[in-house]
Amino acid sequence: MSEGKEVTLAKVAERAKTSRATVYRYFSDPSVLALDATLDLDVTPTSELLEGLDDVRSRVHVVARYYLEFSRVNEAHFRQFLAESLKASLEDGTVKMRGARRLAAFSEALAPVHPLMEPKEIDDLAKRLSMTTGMEQLVILEDILRVDEATGYQLQKGLVDALLDRFLPKN
To answer: Whole-model pTM?
Structure first.
């Protein structure tokens, strides 16, 4: 997009030096990728967030907190993004899949327990955890629940812990 060229998933895969399958998994449609790119925000790589952390709970909490804080810091951009996403879905009658950064980040955070879980279990838990953070969660905390920042983080921590207690393998 920054080069003024049409965005295609094949071009993105080539430029990112990754497989087309990976790009298609997280961006099912070039228009979604283009919309996601409009955010133009630097996301800290998950590997950096998790550096030096071996405990799966700590890793998951770091990712959850990061994406909620990232949404808070970039709230105006994300609200605009959500508005454009909703508008686009209303115009053509379909819901567009967004990029799945959180899903990939939680999967990476769960890496210490990958050998102990089935791939579907890991994917399901990463999806559940992805629901605990991000702009959607910020909207719930601030616009619906109307809680302060500290209370929001406490609520998020409790939700993440409940999911981990329920779905992590027992030793």
So the answer is: 0.74
d(CA 157, CA 160): 5
pLDDT (tens, 9 = 90+) of the chain, 171 residues, equals: 344 455 566 776 777 677 777 766 666 666 566 556 555 567 899 999 999 999 999 999 999 999 999 999 988 878 877 777 777 777 766 655 555 789 999 999 999 999 999 999 999 999 999 999 998 899 999 999 999 999 999 999 999 999 999 999 986
